[in-house]
Specification:
Elements (H helix, E strand, L loop, with lengths): L2 H28 L10 E8 L3 E11 L2 H9 L3 E8 L12 E3 L11 E6 L2 E11 L14 E10 L5 E5 L3 E3 L2
Antiparallel strand pairs: 1-2, 2-6, 3-4, 3-7, 5-6, 7-8, 7-9
Bound molecules: calcium ion (3 copies).
One calcium ion binds next to loops.
Length: 171
């Protein structure tokens, strides 16, 4: 190989090394925590039949599907607590429910914790007999006010929480 062509080849090789280094840097950066959980939202809808009251709670954390699946695989969980809204003290209506990657495996359809292109999602339908746990004000003509809190705890212990709005009815 003569002089100029050899220098061109060396420049090309250096260029390839530089390009490879840049790509590796981007990959390492995107694998870090910068793109993880930063926001959380929670919603509640109450449904009643003559005999049953159920609280349908959903919790969402927007992030990439890659991060969402990574968090779930590494032990992230979502805890759901529901409260009766009162003037002085909002008592918790039933023990804390915890949802993990094993939640919602068949045959359960009522509880699902999953990752998709929009982030991490929880859906759960928590039912009790009507007049039982969700009946937080006991006088016969007292309606009930229920809200829930969704708490995200990732595998490293980082916590994010969100409250739902208050649902009102005779639960
Ligand atoms: Ca109340
Ligand atoms: Ca109450
Ligand atoms: Ca009541």
């Amino acid at each position: 190989m003569n002089g100029p062509r050899k220098r061109t080849a060396v420049r090309l090789a250096r260029g390839l090394v530089t390009a490879f280094t840049v790509v590796m840097s981007v990959l390492v950066f995107s694998a870090g925590p910068a793109n993880g959980a930063g926001a959380i939202s929670a919603r509640l809808s109450m449904r009643t039949t003559a005999t049953t009251t159920s609280g349908v709670v959903s919790v969402d954390l927007p992030m990439s599907q890659h991060d969402a699946q990574g968090y779930i695989n590494n032990g992230a969980r979502i805890e759901v607590r529901c409260y009766g809204d009162d003037y002085f003290f909002d008592d918790q209506l039933f023990p804390t429910r915890t949802f993990t990657r094993t939640t919602g495996t068949p045959p359960s359809q009522a509880d699902r914790l999953w990752a998709d292109q929009y982030g991490v999602h929880l859906f759960t339908d928590i039912s009790f007999a009507r007049g039982a746990e969700y009946n937080e004000d006991l006088a016969p003509d007292n309606g009930d006010e229920v809200y829930c809190k969704g708490t995200w705890i990732d595998g490293d212990g980082a916590v994010l929480s969100a409250f739902t709005t208050v649902a009102r009815g005779t639960f």
